[in-house]
UniProtKB/TrEMBL annotation:
Keywords: Cytoplasm, Iron, Metal-binding, Nucleus, Zinc. The keyword Iron applies. This is Diphthamide biosynthesis protein 4. Transmembrane segments: none annotated. Residues 9-79 form the J domain. It is found in: Cytoplasm; Nucleus. It comes from Discina gigas. Residues 95-141 form the DPH-type MB domain. Required for the first step of diphthamide biosynthesis, the transfer of 3-amino-3-carboxypropyl from S-adenosyl-L-methionine to a histidine residue. Diphthamide is a post-translational modification of histidine which occurs in elongation factor 2. PROSITE patterns: DNAJ_2 (PS50076), DPH_MB (PS51074).
Length: 141
């Protein structure tokens, strides 16, 4: 089964932009909002949330890191370093999320699978039959 991997940053977990202020109020508001959205006891009979599910521990770690100046500075340094290593391909040692091919939309007319990027940029992710064949042969991108 082909898997595409996506990175989830603390900013994505809290649904805040990377340039959010260090002031406590905006981060605390985002933290509380994330807790309400992802807390299992708060879901009740609501329909399933199409956004990624994050654990309370992930949300708390994101808030703690981003709200503590020295932790945030170190995190941003590590994030910048890991981003530069991923540009040429997927780095298996980083925090990633696997997505099944079943999560993609198959376009019969164009004979390819697509999935929108969470950032909303461009066409998103596209997988063709050639990509699948190359992956099966061990010659994947």
């Amino acid at each position: 089964m082909t898997r595409i991997q996506f990175r989830e940053t603390h900013y994505e977990i809290l649904s805040v932009p990377p340039n959010i202020s260090l002031a406590p109020a905006p981060l605390k508001k985002a933290y509380h909002r994330a807790l309400l959205i992802h807390h299992p006891d708060k879901l009740g009979s609501q329909p399933p949330n199409p956004k990624p599910r994050f654990t309370i521990d992930q949300i708390t770690a994101a808030y703690t890191t981003l709200s503590t100046p020295h932790l945030r500075q170190e995190y941003e340094r590590q994030l910048a370093a890991s981003t530069s290593t991923i540009i040429g391909g997927v780095d298996e040692g980083k925090v990633l999320q696997s997505v099944d091919l079943d999560d993609f939309y198959y376009d019969e007319e164009r004979e390819r699978w697509t999935r929108a990027c969470r950032c909303g940029a461009g066409e998103g992710f596209v997988i063709t039959e050639e990509d699948l064949a190359a992956d099966a042969d061990g010659k994947g991108k």
